[in-house]
UniProtKB/TrEMBL annotation:
Protein's name according to its UniProt entry: PA2779 family protein
Transmembrane segments: 102-124
First and last residue of the signal peptide: 1-28
Cited InterPro entries: PA2779-like (IPR046735)
Annotated Pfam families: DUF6627 (PF20332)
Length: 125
């Protein structure tokens, strides 16, 4: 036996109302910069301070400053941009700075090329 049209409409309406009542209301708010940049815990604050210190020491180097000025960025603009970075961006940049090889670090390929050139020079003499 099939329900009548009125009972089906009532059932659909009741189901729709129950779904609307059960769904939580969505809220959207703007997040301020202060909320975004506040550290979550003491350990995060120490890590953030260490990352900012790494970034400041790197940017204070003379060769970095010379390259930035060559690219058209003054020290004031650079400092403003560094201050505007989020915590995640500071952590990412500090990680990249810490993972950079020291000057003069040669990889395996470079060593093989130097060795081959040296052998060719010795054979040529």
């Amino acid at each position: 036996m099939f329900p009548s049209r009125i009972s089906r409409q009532f059932l659909v309406a009741a189901l729709g109302l129950s779904l609307m009542a059960a769904a939580p209301a969505a809220r959207a708010e703007l997040i301020g910069t202060q909320q975004l940049t506040q550290p979550q815990s003491g350990q995060d604050a120490a890590t953030l301070a260490a990352d900012r210190s790494t970034l400041d020491h790197f940017m204070a180097r003379a060769d970095v400053q010379a390259k930035l000025e060559q690219m058209g960025l003054s020290q004031e603009v650079t400092q403003q941009r560094l201050a505007a970075l989020s915590n995640a961006e500071v952590a990412q940049l500090a990680g990249r700075i810490n993972s950079m090889p020291a000057a003069g670090a040669l990889g395996f390929q470079e060593m093989v090329i130097i060795l081959l050139v040296a052998i060719l020079v010795v054979l040529a003499l």
